[in-house]
Structures are given as structure tokens and as C-alpha cells.
Design brief:
single chain; D-Maltodextrin-Binding Protein, domain 2; 2 domains
Length: 325
Amino acid sequence: MKLFIKSAMLAATLGAGLTAAPANSQTAWPARSVRIIVPSTPGGGTDAYARLISAVLSESLKQQFVVENRPGGNGNIGAEAAARSAPDGYTIMITASPSLIMNPILYKSLPFSAEKDFAPVAGGVISPLIFVVHPSVPARSVADLVAIGKKSPGKLTYGSAQQTSSTALGVRLLEDSSGAKFTNIPYKGLGQAVQNLLSGEISFMYSDVVAILPQLRAGKLIPLGASAHIPQLPDVPTVADAGYPDAGVHASFMVVAPTGTPQPIIQRLNSEILRLTKMPDVAAKLEAMVLIPYFESPAEFGARLLKEREKWGAHIRRLGVKLDE
């Protein structure tokens, strides 16, 4: 499967359920700093995207947009904090997929409702994932990795951003389609996982590209295959090329606000993020980080979220993934 590497443009689908507020309720917004909750540690793709958006919104709207990392609980700690925040436009969340897509499927109960407690703001970006190994691992292709995982089940360890992210479930999909077995070491974010991979404490990762691109260019990690063709790494084949298209998943970083946030604020945030994303300097930074933007209205983003939950629900049921919580 070949993921597109150009900006995703979706057709207009107006009418998703966002509750409007009186049009004159927030004419001065933003009148003070805005908090951006990120439910993971610094050093990963979610944090990198959040800090870029924080910088450009701060400059554009003349108020500080401050990133607050709230990792833990497979993303649930930060998501709960965002859901419980006042819906006044002064708290938003930039999150990867687990908080809004995977966790509602995997957990029997959560301290928040992904559907009821969050209003879609902007679809954000997607990032291809890439299999990378420590140089000591005798694998130089996805086929080599699979061969080791079949010959010595569970011997190789892989780090992931939480248990419920695409960086973990993507490996489960590779296991399912190949018969290989690996051992997952979950982290609160990719930053610490990358450090442990560099030191050889874990064997490999299926990482979003932005988290490990400098290490790849420095030759400190070995790329095996990616979920899509990556222009910055033209010699790296795709997992589909290796015969495992089901593992060709991606990471998503998206923007939401507590439900009840006034509609004019949501629309302004959406408009600003889309406008800034199209600016040449910002577009160049996203391209350098291998982050591919969506240009969606809040309603379109909300509709895509529902489809993503359906897709990942089917994957999770097939894999039989269960959590103790």
C-alpha cells in the first residue's frame, strides 16, 4: 500500500455536530495565553508538530500558545486533563491517534469520552512510519527482521509510543501477516524510546520519521522499510514492497478542543492553522519533518475521525489486542 505524500485534500462535508456559541461571545479572543496539552513526552512527532503550531499561532495571533506535555496512561492522562478543561478557547489538545481513535476501542472505560468531550478543530498532519534497527541487529530489510522474529520468537524487542499507538499496533499487524513474534517495550512517548534504541537497549522501532530522521542521516540507525515512499529517504523501500501491505500504517497528529468551546473560536483556529500551514516557510518545515498536512474543515475532520475509529476497530478485533485496564 502506498500512502500519498502530498497534502490530503478532502471534499467538503459540512454539518458535523459542533455546538455553536453566540457569535459575539469571543470577539476579543485570544486575550491571554492559550495552553496546548500534548499527551506524550517531548521528542516525538506529536510534540514536534505541536511546537511548530505553537510558534506560528503565537506569532500570528499575538498571544502565547504554550505547549504542556502531559504523558502517561497511553495518552489518557493528558486527554483527561484536556477534556476537563474549561471550554473557553484557552485550552486545546494536539494529540496522536491513541487518545481519540484507539483507546476508546481498547479500554472498557475511560475518564473521558473521545466522541462527546472533544470538538474537532483541525485534522493536523500524518507521518509515515519507518522500521529502524540498532546497527547490532543483523537485519537490513523487513524480510530479515521477519526471519529473525520467526526463528527466535520474542527475542527482538521494539519500543513504541504507548501500547495503543500505530507505532505499536503497526508491529502487531506485521506479526499477524508474517508469523513473526517480537516483544513490545512501551514508552510514554517516542523520545525515550529513540534514546534506548540508540544505546542498544531495544532492538528496533516502527517510528514516525520526524523522531529519528537526524539519527538515520547520521548512520546511527538502520532503515529497513517504511509505510510509504519517503522523498527524503529515496532508497528505503515500503513495507508493501516487502510483501506486508497491512503493516503500512501511519501516525496522525491532530487538534481538538473541549466540547463547548465556542464555534467562532474553533473556526478561527481552523482557519489560522490551515492558512499558516500553506505558508511557504511553514510548508517547508513540515516537509523537512515528513509531516503531510490535511486541509479540512472541523466537520470534515470529525467525519474522518469516525472512519478512522472504524478502520482501527477492525484491525484491533482481528489482532485480538486486549488491555488489562
